[in-house]
Amino acid sequence: MKRLEYPARIKELTAQLKRMPGIGPRSAERIALWMVHARDARSSEIADAIGAVAERIRPCSQCGFFTEETVCEICADPARSGGPLCVVEQATDILPLERTGAFRGKYHALGGRISPLEHVGPDDLRIDQLMQRIQNESPPEVILALGTGVEGEATANFLAGLLKASDVIVSRIAQGLPAGGGLENADELTLSRALSGRVTVNS
Ligand SMILES: [Zn+2]
Question: Ligand 1 centre and the CA of 123: distance in Å?
Answer without folding.
Answer: 21
